Amino acid sequence: MAPRIKSGVRGGMDFADSLPSTMSDIEKEEKSSEFAGLERVRDAIADTMHTTACTLAGKLRSEEPADPGASEAVDWGLQTSRWLDRWSDELRQWDVRQSEARLQASITAHPGRALLMAGAVGILLANLLRRR
User: Fold this and answer.
1) Is 53 in contact with 87 (CB distance < 8 Å)?
2) Whole-angstrom Cα distance, residue 117 to residue 111?
3) Which of 103, 94, 85, 101 is nearest to 42 (CA)?
4) pLDDT digits over 40-73, tens only?
5) Cα–Cα distance measured from residue 49 to residue 83, given in angstroms and rounded to the nearest whole number
6) pTM for this entry
7) What is the DSSP string of the chain?
8) What are the tens digits of pLDDT across the range 6-34?
9) For the purposes of burial, counting CB atoms within 10 Å of the CB of 5, is it exposed (0-12), middle (13-18) or buried (19 or more)?
């Protein structure tokens, strides 16, 4: 039996074990790399939302309001930070592949509506770009 090549990058995993074993594994890897950029953007936005929520809550909790009216503003700010944090968690859980599948199914089921929406988006973009 031939000796196996160790890969230092994969933390001691055998190189042969890291190779896809079937054609479906190759297709899965290609599909996952197809959305890797979008998933990185999604995670970066979620991280920014979470950081903003933590910073906002920390600043609001560290300062004591001088007047009673400011207390209500602090409560609104804390509520906003909770919403941001919850939305960041939901954004992290968003499945890009499932959304693509739903979008494709909707376009297939309603091609006329899809064309109308694409036309409307095109008109809006043309108007925005023309004004600049």
Assistant:
1) no
2) 10
3) 94
4) 999 999 999 999 999 999 988 887 766 767 788 8
5) 10
6) 0.57
7) -PPPPB-TTTTT-BHHHHS--SHHHHHHHHHHHHTHHHHHHHHHHHHHHHHHHHHHHHHHHHSPPSSHHHHHHHHHHHHHHHHHHHHHHHHHH--HHHHHHHHHHHHHH-HHHHHHHHHHHHHHHHHHHHH-
8) 444 444 444 445 545 555 655 555 555 67
9) exposed
Please state, in angstroms and rounded to a whole number, the distance separating the CA atoms of residues 129 and 115.
21
Tokens of 3: 């000796």
Q: Which two tokens stand for residue 106?
A: 């909707």
